[in-house]
Amino acid sequence: MFENDTIIETRHLNIYYGDFKAVTDVELKIPAKRITAIIGPSGCGKSTLLRAFNRMNELIPGSHIDGEIIFEGKNLYDRDVDPVEVRYRIGMVFQRPNPFPKSIYENVAWAARIHGYKGSLDELVESTLKKAALWDEVKDILKQSALSLSGGQQQRLCVARALAIQPEVILMDEPASALDPIATLKIEELMQSLKENYTIVIVTHNMQQAARASDYTAMMMLTDGTRSGTVIEFDETNKIFTRPRDKRTEDYVTGRFG
Q1: Can you give the pLDDT at residue 258?
Q2: Which residues, in sequence order, are bridge partners of residue 25?
Q3: Which of 74, 143, 144, 168 is the most buried (most CB within 10 A)?
C-alpha cells in the first residue's frame, strides 16, 4: 500500500514471552514521516509490537520473535545487527515521563555526549529543546533539576532527549496517558511538527487522540480463542474511523466494546 515510502515492514511477525505467543502473524508497513497509531483493547499486544520495533522486548528474559522486521531494507533481528545501534536510530518515549535526576541541560546533553557527539553541546541542547517545543519555557532554568518540571514538560524533555541522538523513528507508548488535557494537546501538536522530519509510531487507548493526531491507524485484536493479538486492519486514519472494513474495528472505535 505504501511501498515507496515504507520505513518499517513486519513480515509474518510472531512475538513470544517464553512459550506464550503474545503477537501473531503481523504484516504491517509503516510509512515514513507520518504518524501511525496502534489501537485496540487492553492486552492485545500493542505495546509488545511497538517495543519490537527497536528490540526493547529483548530486555525481558525469555522473549523472542520469529518472522522479520525490515528497517530500511535490513532485518533488525539479523545476527550482525547491534540492538544498541537500533535503539539509536529508533528512539522510544515511554508512558510516564522518566527524566534523569539531572539538570534539564544534562538530560539532553548526556545522551549525545555518551554517543560521541563532536559538535557544540550548547547548540545541540538549544536546537533539540526547540524541536521539542520546550526551549522558551526552560531556556532560563537549564541548570535546574528536570524533576522540577511539570509532567507535560517532563514528557517533552523526554522527547528532546530522544531527539538528541538523531533518530529516524520515534516510538511513543501512550505518551499522554498520565497528562492533563492541555499537556496532552501540546504533545499532539509536537508530534505534528516532528513528522516533517521523523516517523512516529504511537500506541494509544484514546480514540479521540488517534483520530486527531495520526495519519494511519493499525487496529489490533486478540485472535479467536487465544490471548495472542494481531493486526486485523490497517489504513488511513479517516477510513478506520469512518468506514472500516472489519466489523470488529467499527465496534471498537464507536465504543461498542473495549
Answers
A1: 56
A2: none
A3: 168
The fraction of the chain above a pLDDT of 90, given in percent, is 86
The CA distance from 68 to 86, in Å, is: 14
Q: How many residues does the chain have?
A: 258
- CA-closest candidate to residue 138, choices 203, 225, 188, 129: 129
Q: In what order do the strands lie in the sheet with 199-203?
A: 74-75, 63-71, 6-17, 20-31, 229-236, 216-222, 35-39, 199-203, 169-173, 90-93
Contact 216, 36 (CB under 8 A): yes
Averaged over 75-83, what is the pLDDT? 96
- The SS3 call for residue 160 is helix
pLDDT tens sequence across 223-253: 887 889 999 999 999 999 999 999 999 999 9
Outline where 29-134 has alpha helix (H). Answer: 46-52, 83-89, 104-114, 121-131
Residue ranges of the alpha helices (H) in 53-120? 83-89, 104-114
Q: Which three cell numbers stand for residue 6?
A: 515504507
Q: Which domains does the chain have, with CATH numbers?
A: 3-97+165-253 (3.40.50.300)
pLDDT of residue 2: 44
**pLDDT above 90 for 255:** no
Cα within 13 Å of Cα(68), Cβ side:
13
